[in-house]
Amino acid sequence: MADGCGKAKIGPSILNSDLSNLASECQRMVDSGADYLHLDVMDGQFVPNLTFGHPVVKCLRPKLQNVFFDMHMMVAAPEQWIEGMQAAGADQYTFHQEATDDPKTCIRKIKEAGMKAGIGIKPNTPVNVLDPFVDLVDMVLIMTVEPGFGGQKFMGDMMPKIQYLREHFGTIDIEVDGGVGPSTIQQCADAGANMIVSGSAVIGSDNPRETMNYMRNVVEEAIQKSQLER
Ligand code: DX5
Ligand code: ZN
Fold this sequence. Notes:
Helix content is about 35%, strand content about 20%. The protein has helices at about 20-30, 55-60, 80-90, 105-110, 160-170, 185-190, 200-205, 210-230; strands at about 10, 35-40, 70-75, 90-95, 115-120, 140-145, 175, 195-200. Strand 6, helix 5 and strand 7 (about 175) form a beta-alpha-beta unit. Zinc ion binds next to strand 2.
């Protein structure tokens, strides 16, 4: 099982930040109390947008030495970037179930490379496709927007997927990504998400520390409540 599983963690997504100042934007998030960084990799095939790949991660790593990098790999054939990302200094490799015919091999290769493994699904994918993989990974990711762009509207109808995972798989780390901010965090927390990706709401906040603290507290309270009820 993952280290510290079930803990409330906030991972800002820097997708909607000033990408010409990527390292300083990441540092700003870390200085504001980010628990990890969620780095969105897009290949123009799996999603209709392009961002960056392992060469950029390699340049970020020495500038952000002790920060946990969760790579959200919105790419086709995710196996192909495992080695590159590991060499660049990624900590976790989160790929999409829809992107490969063989998620088990992908998970095995990620682990053999010494990284943590995450598996995610898009909004139209039913949650039970994850059943065979949940026990093999460190984290599952439920998308609450169509992957590809920051700043989209949160899809509250994805919450039953999170509830299903929390009910069936206990303390597994469950990450939620897309449209999450102070106005939608309560739903995510109540459903059972504990790893919270937030892009535009944190990047655009006048006080990112306060925004992240608020969301972390909401999630921590929900975790405590669920533990009391158990
Ligand atoms: C969307 C990305 C998200 C996105 C989140 O495809 O995976 O990580 O940047 O940004 P917001 O919080 O603005 O939806
Ligand atoms: Zn993402």
